Amino acid sequence: MAIRLGKNNYGKQRVRVLQVVRRPDRHDIKELTLSIRLEGDFELAHTKGDNRKVLPTDTMKNTVYALAKQHAIESPEEFCLRLAEHFLSRNPQVSRVRVEAAQTLWSRLSVEGKPHPHTFTSSTSEKRTAALSATREEKTLHAEIEGLVVLKTTDSAFENFLRDQYTTLKEDRDRILATAIRAAWLYRDNPADFDSTWHGVRQTLLESFAGHDSESLQHTLYAMGEAVLKKFTGIREVHLSLPNKHYNLFNLSPFHLDNPKEIFLPTDEPHGLIEATLSND
Amino acid sequence: MAIRLGKNNYGKQRVRVLQVVRRPDRHDIKELTLSIRLEGDFELAHTKGDNRKVLPTDTMKNTVYALAKQHAIESPEEFCLRLAEHFLSRNPQVSRVRVEAAQTLWSRLSVEGKPHPHTFTSSTSEKRTAALSATREEKTLHAEIEGLVVLKTTDSAFENFLRDQYTTLKEDRDRILATAIRAAWLYRDNPADFDSTWHGVRQTLLESFAGHDSESLQHTLYAMGEAVLKKFTGIREVHLSLPNKHYNLFNLSPFHLDNPKEIFLPTDEPHGLIEATLSND
Amino acid sequence: MAIRLGKNNYGKQRVRVLQVVRRPDRHDIKELTLSIRLEGDFELAHTKGDNRKVLPTDTMKNTVYALAKQHAIESPEEFCLRLAEHFLSRNPQVSRVRVEAAQTLWSRLSVEGKPHPHTFTSSTSEKRTAALSATREEKTLHAEIEGLVVLKTTDSAFENFLRDQYTTLKEDRDRILATAIRAAWLYRDNPADFDSTWHGVRQTLLESFAGHDSESLQHTLYAMGEAVLKKFTGIREVHLSLPNKHYNLFNLSPFHLDNPKEIFLPTDEPHGLIEATLSND
Amino acid sequence: MAIRLGKNNYGKQRVRVLQVVRRPDRHDIKELTLSIRLEGDFELAHTKGDNRKVLPTDTMKNTVYALAKQHAIESPEEFCLRLAEHFLSRNPQVSRVRVEAAQTLWSRLSVEGKPHPHTFTSSTSEKRTAALSATREEKTLHAEIEGLVVLKTTDSAFENFLRDQYTTLKEDRDRILATAIRAAWLYRDNPADFDSTWHGVRQTLLESFAGHDSESLQHTLYAMGEAVLKKFTGIREVHLSLPNKHYNLFNLSPFHLDNPKEIFLPTDEPHGLIEATLSND
């Protein structure tokens, strides 16, 4: 019998940084939460307790703050690229760096209709994330959105599905469709402006969800992915993960009341989940 | 020795309802999550297992859907009042009804700059809640906001504080101030429009936070409460609960880098908490 | 119009400390998470930004570690008492101190049946908490348990309840009863050993839940509270908060299968909630 | 430009079931939360809204209850196998079924030292999970444990590590080591008794953590994986994911107190993370 060490990695999670840029007329802020993981030649650390090639995770943390000071954080995507380059260029024992950066979405406050110079709000449950996997040869960079909750009250059906002995679901020509969009996309070439592209993809996802005449959540997922790939030709691939957040018509007939699609029971448990990757060849 | 039953209540939590109003040109939606609790003459249920005065919590749940059907949900405040009146008027054994309604904050989606007739988004971590405690004699109705996260990068200090043998904190003339506002207010008389008042209070809290020259979070809390009471004279009392979400300057000197208030470490644990009630006599 | 500052407090939340006692043959550990809040003469801090009576919350945090070093942590109850005494005796501007201490429940690991000298596990979702409210005149100390999940498959009924037009619930002579016990009790006089009393109350709650022939969750709540007060005469009052974690019989008849109370659907939303305080006069 | 549908799946999440086995002298219970996902020939559902090959996720849910009724739930692993076989044998359009089953860990209550016939407690934050990916040709079945929290107060060091310009961490010959074990293992051949093997792996993980003279968390991870593979030769591969839950010595010197490894500050953010797969060839 031979025990063998297979794939392994180590790193630091939940490293949080806020950067303030102090301009004469206004302050700008960027806040990120980072995850950094290294792969490489760490066999002896595992098998012998020999740490000579192990850069401490505490050092990874310090590096985040030192690099943020030396180069302004432009976008989560660019900060991931900078961190990966730093670790790859200085650590020959490292073969792959994975970095994820989740951006806290701060908005500048409006006071009496005018943007305030130094006050911000952040009341969103949406998350913007960048995820990079980089070696010295290639980089795979995903941009992501998570927690973008949408609901439409009509233009959604689910009919003509497969039935078996355990099927009790009724056909529905006009139902509520609701989901919490999670999308991750891969750039063919990095865009000139990561921020405006991210916001453009977000709006395209919303508008294609709204405008689609849906025969199922699969059908709408495909329409959403297709809309993104058609509009953003620099995107090679988009992955969508859409929970089906069920809103069930509540049965009011025991109370001698009708319910013409007015009163619904929202429920999270159980829920459907639809996932697919679309690519643009 | 005599065992005595003191204060007691029972009810149903996390009752969720969505109402769709289908107009010719557009749909409107309201979504609430309700908590209902009854107090009253329930001694025999506890001591003897006699349920003859116990309205099942399942019936409380059904009542939510039946009343929503018969009367459109106008606001969380009004739906609380309706539910309490229903239970008090039909259940002589009940002396007090407490209802809380948390509204899911849906916004109508804009598509190409125009409001979409039937698609909505909800990506906020803010909560709007109404909380009612009602007897046949009196009603106490609180409106609440929770999770309204704000941050300012300047105009905040903390100096000249009390020191003892365990004090190591340094004075700070210019620090970041951040909090997640929770506010609950009590109406002297119910306003004509609960929705616009709630939004007005929200904006007043934000603007007073932004505009204040802060000597401490206590100082800013008072300014925020005062601004609300001065602007909304129908409000008798406002309670504010403000965590101090610390953003600590990161020490870059070990790396021979200065840090003129640019790079901060956000931290949730531990955190300060400041609470106070202001009233308008 | 006169704005008035009413009740107010401030303090530090989520202060975490682990203490290791290094004995020759074994190590012992105690881990607490603390919340400290002060009330007192803080009007000028709010109204004028005058911090001269404000002990920083950062100092409260430091005090936890300094006191833990100087006096071993015996129990969460005793550490609350020590902290409150510290702040009251040195801060004339403080009129009331509230301290909560939640203990992380570590157990010593057994290796080949023997207690290990320095390894511990903590895989419980239960919480043990002490909550103290202290002035110079009086102290109110609650001991608490939270998240103690129990389920019985029989000896539970719910029948002969009140019915109205919205009642659809069926009577049930033999149902599952499940809850997550939260109990808080008040000592008449502090016990000699807080730890063994806490564990005794916990076991009494479990055994009375198991042994009761239940006509409702109210009925069982009362039996549980009564058992605690009868067994622990040093306890003056016990408050119980019991969610009714519903396990609904799943309807298998569409599949031509019977279901003699074998297959259930657990659900958390909505759920019942029963609360009462029992006292021993 | 050609849009192409790549990998896709759909299914039902958070399907909860409790099974009661009613024996003359005692009841036994099993509670699972299931996730079911199907891959297969679903292209037309996405591209054309043609649902004729789509088995509703509602039917997947019903199937869980119907199969639980017809065959007692033995273990999460066996129930995953049963569900996958059901969907594969009846749905030619399905090429792969993935099922995850998380078991709620109920323990029979002891009353006066004797096992109670029908009352159970569940106060653990640990999770036992089985995860199956099955096609008609092959099955990959992982058994998992998650949230097994352990801490040792000594026999742990981290020294002689790599240093760069951002390294400030001090060498430590004697530190606290704490983690929340997540382990997933792959059976070469399925064991006769999934339950006793799972409990055996759990105990082996605990004892190897306790007994190891650690030079790093990587070093201990390897020792834990090696111990599992050596003791359970039917296991082909084990994956370990270990957060480094830091307990930092609190600096008491500003208060003129020493701290000979007695008072620590537990912190979750940031934290290290060590992951590796070990296999037995």
How far apart lie the N and C ends of chain A? Answer: 46 Å
Q: What's the CATH H-level superfamily name of the largest domain in chain A?
A: Urate Oxidase
Count every beta strand of chain A, where a strand is a DSSP E run of 2 or more residues: 12
Rounded average pLDDT of chain A = 97
The biggest beta sheet of chain A reads: 8 strands, antiparallel
What is the SS-derived class of chain A? alpha+beta
Rg of chain A, Cα atoms, Å: 24 Å
Overall CATH class of the largest domain in chain A: Alpha Beta
Q: What is the strand arrangement across the widest sheet of chain A? A: 1-2-3-6-7-8-9-12
* Tally of discrete structural domains of chain A: 2
Main features:
homotetramer, 281 residues, alpha+beta, Urate Oxidase, 2 domains, 8-stranded antiparallel β-sheet, two-stranded antiparallel ribbon, 12 strands
What does this structure look like?
4 copies of one chain form a homotetramer. The first copy, chain A, has 281 residues and is of the alpha+beta class. Chain A has 2 domains: 10-137, Urate Oxidase (Roll), CATH 3.10.270; 147-279, Roll (Urate Oxidase). Helix content of chain A is 24%, strand content 42%. Chain A has helices at residues 43-48, 57-70, 76-90, 194-211, 217-231, and strands at 3-22, 27-40, 94-103, 107-111, 114-121, 127-134, 139-152, 177-187, 235-244, 247-249, 263-266, 271-280. In chain A, the strands form 3 sheets. In chain A, strands 1-2-3-6-7-8-9-12 form an 8-stranded antiparallel β-sheet. A two-stranded antiparallel ribbon of chain A has the order 4-5. The first copy, chain A, has a two-stranded antiparallel sheet with strand order 10-11. Chain A is globular, with a radius of gyration of 24 Å. The model of chain A has no long low-confidence stretch (mean pLDDT 97). Chains A and B meet through β1, β2, α2, β5 and β7 of A and β1, β2, α2, β5 and β7 of B.
